[in-house]
Fold this protein.
Amino acid sequence: MLFIANATLYPMAADMPEVVEQGCLAAEGGRIIRVGTGFTYADICAQMQRTRAQQAEDVWIDAGGSWVMPGIIEAHCHMGITEEKKGMEGDDCNETVNPVTPYLRAIDAINSMDAAFDDAVRAGITSAMIGPGSANVVGGQFAFVKTRGRRIDDLIVLAPAAMKVAFGENPKVNYSGQGKSPSTRMAVAAMLREELTKAAAYRTKKEQGGSDFETDFHYEAWLPVLEGRIPLKAHVHRVDDIFTAIRIAGEFGLSMTLDHCSEGHLIAAEIRDSGFPAIVGPDLASRNKIEVQNMAFKTAGILHAHGVKTAITTDHPVSVIASLPLCAGLAVKAGLPMMEGLRAITVNAAQICRVDRRVGSLEVGKDADIAIFDGNPMEIFTNTLMTIIDGEIIYHNTEFPLFTK
């Protein structure tokens, strides 16, 4: 069992206070079994009838008033697919020979030995949504994974978790350079419509069955999207691209997340009315393309003020993964309320990625993914003291002797 005492808890749970002073948390078997106040380690041991031998294996942490939060979540990145320090040999982010590749799976390219995974853990980041890049109109399937372990199969929380589609500069620049479609925004939209139309026809044919039905690997990948089990994950920066994504999702009755959403602050009311959430960023990057000229840290705050559920992303490696809490802090500096900054990298991210049944808040029954900090993680001088994944201490800053066993 894992027991944390004397914590300043930020549970991110709807039925708990925003901050719980002198809080405690108990976890067993990788899941949270109790969180709040008014109980002790002895109480939990008595309740569970733990023997002395079992207690000898427990980990008891005195947080000493430190911040204890849900593990931080990166809602959109390419960690382990675009590997650090390996150049072309480690870049598996974009299959730039075919603009429509729904059958590609992130889990087949994520290298959990990428140095970025260790950086993530040291920043208190315990899980991430990882997938293909935006060179293709349809890039393939994202996966939501934990950030510690060697075998990707053991890290999966949800796969497939979303279907990547991209609008705007990236697909048109990539394929116009090859002398083929799409070379315009019209073609990007038309190719996605054509693909969705064929996928819907395939679904109908499969439902009808018949002796002549043959499974098609290409269109099977679309079934979770068409059935509403996973969303489109739309790469959109500019206002017109955001509206095109909303239009197409509406035509086909699909759910969607608006990723990057760099000009979202210009059309915040319309995004709210669409009902789609936004994953904002990477604002800690240069405005190196025409479509990101209006990128700004104020976007998340304006979207939140208009009622849009918002998460924040680094888009690693565009901005490094460890800067995620700092990106949230810069959004707070630009107008996002402080607690919303924390939610944008915890419970909001979990809800948008559809994994909030397991992660994103400190609640009974959820995974014991926990980050402990010596202050607000959105502030530059704050240190990560401990990162816990599935109830196991993965990182411990040894300069801060917090726990006894």
Observations:
- The longest strand covers residues 156-166.
- The radius of gyration is 22 Å.
- The longest helix spans residues 185-208.
- The chain has 14 helices and 17 strands.
